[in-house]
TrEMBL record:
PROSITE patterns xrefs: PHOSPHOTRIESTERASE_2
Protein's UniProt name: Phosphotriesterase-related protein
InterPro entries linked: Metal_Hydrolase, Phosphotriesterase
The keyword Transmembrane helix is annotated on this UniProt entry: no
Native organism taxonomy: Eukaryota, Metazoa, Ecdysozoa, Arthropoda, Crustacea
Pfam families from the UniProt entry: PTE (PF02126)
Superkingdom of this protein's organism: Eukaryota
Membrane-spanning residues: none
UniProt family annotation: Belongs to the metallo-dependent hydrolases superfamily. Phosphotriesterase family.
PANTHER family reported in the protein's UniProt record: PHOSPHOTRIESTERASE-RELATED (PTHR10819), PHOSPHOTRIESTERASE-RELATED PROTEIN (PTHR10819:SF3)
Keywords: Hydrolase, Metal-binding, Signal
Length: 225
């Protein structure tokens, strides 16, 4: 858990608030760390030894976590591969992770979710690497489309590939995308307009909606206490 998260918890006025928030935060942190989902996130977040992993090593590790259980929590098996983190341009380590997820998916039959690089061409590149490695497009989820496609034509062109299209940044309403300020972030209303466009074009069964809640300040404490 980050130092800022600790400080936020310690600032809560009531001991019961601190205790309950700590429990929730610990659970979220464990989940973020990989329990329940097996994954390789973006190159910039990896240790040196992880960056050196071969496709075969990644396939073996993900297969273990999907079929036998996770190393630190062997009583929990993963139910999904993801997020597989990709940058733009795609790093060689990330390319291997995408290939490994395709190979593992073909064997295990599980869903796979991708975090695409911050460029409209990134999702299709990932799609081709994944499917050429054996991955099933019908089991593939492309996340973070809110900040990736900014034209309706580009969105429909990608959806035509047959994967799930995920709008998962609901609730983040800022003028610019914080991680790429050249991108105008859509509002929730604009997200709904884009989703409706997918529905109008026949992709109603291929839409996923989520909140990518990865920071403590976006939790509403009162609901949990
Ligand atoms: Zn992500």
């Amino acid at each position: 858990m980050s130092i800022s998260s600790w400080i936020l918890i310690l600032l809560l006025p009531q001991p019961s608030q601190r205790r309950n928030t700590w429990r929730i935060a610990s659970l979220l942190w464990k989940t973020w760390d990989g329990s329940g989902k097996t994954r390789y996130y973006v190159m910039a977040s990896q240790k040196k030894e992880t960056l050196a992993m071969s496709v075969e090593n990644m396939v073996n590790a993900m297969t273990m976590e999907l079929t036998f259980g996770c190393g630190d929590t062997p009583n929990i098996k993963c139910g999904i591969i993801g997020e597989i983190g990709c940058s733009w341009p795609l790093h060689d380590f990330e390319r291997r992770a995408v290939q490994a997820s395709g190979e593992t998916q073909e064997f295990a039959g599980c869903p796979v979710m991708f975090h695409p690089g911050r460029y409209h061409g990134a999702p299709e590149e990932i799609f081709h690497i994944y499917t050429e490695a054996g991955g099933d497009p019908k089991k593939m989820v492309m996340g973070h489309l809110d900040r990736t496609f900014h034209t309706l034509d580009g969105l429909v062109e990608y959806a035509s590939l047959g994967t799930y299209c995920e709008y998962d940044l609901f609730g983040i309403e800022t003028s610019h995308y914080q991680l790429n300020t050249s991108v105008d972030m859509p509002s929730d209303a604009q997200r709904i307009e884009r989703i409706k466009h997918l529905v109008d074009n026949g992709f109603e069964d291929k839409i996923l909606i989520a909140h990518d809640i990865h920071t403590l300040h976006r939790l509403t404490m009162a609901r949990w206490l």
